[in-house]
User: What shape does this take?
Amino acid sequence: MFKVISQTNDFVVIAKNADVNFHDEGTPGSGLFSKVKEYILSEGNCQELYPVHRLDKMTSGLLVFAKNSISAKIFGELFEKHQVEKYYLAISDTKPTKKQGLIKGDMAKSRRGMFKLMRTMENPAITQFFSYSMENKQRLYLLKPHSGKTHQLRVALSSIGAPIIGDPLYASNSNITSKPLVDRGYLHAYALRFEFLGESYEFILPPDEGAFFQSDCFTDRIEQLNKPWLLNWPKL
Assistant: This one.
């Protein structure tokens, strides 16, 4: 379900596998948070574990957990003030209406647990993105969210006509989503960058699950994106 990437006295960074629920679903103790907590507490380095952000079930990649209440409060403030830089990778098989830029708008509940992007801007979801051509008419997206809305990145790409491959909600009409080749939802939490108690931290984690994430074309592309914060991002 996960592997530990890094630990300090105040927090732990893990790599979440794809198709793993963050919370318990059905069986108590079966969710990701419960499993991480069980593992970290068994090491005897802390007495409690606190979630500070989350990933959807289909999404793999980097997650941070606080190891004490003070750290949890600090991280809560960092996320609230958007001082944790988050970068994601996604693959779509549909030509987008625009290849880079800004996706911005309020989000509202739709049908079947879905959300939709609105044209209003009262409390908008904000996402910057670049995209890169890949083989087999696929397109790689590097995404930088500036808000933390439910399904934000999935809705953002769907709104420009490029739903994420394997997304069970937003890619129902995608060219290849229903074919056996699709072995996961292709969204991955790739990088985190933040300052905590005066020290700077950077974490980069390329995906290691999914056939499309293992292709030579994909590997060549992300070699050029190993410091995503250095790119000339579209204006907010």
In short: The radius of gyration is 18 Å. Residues 1-81 form a domain with the Pseudouridine synthase fold (CATH 3.30.2350.10). The chain has two domains: 1-81, 85-227.
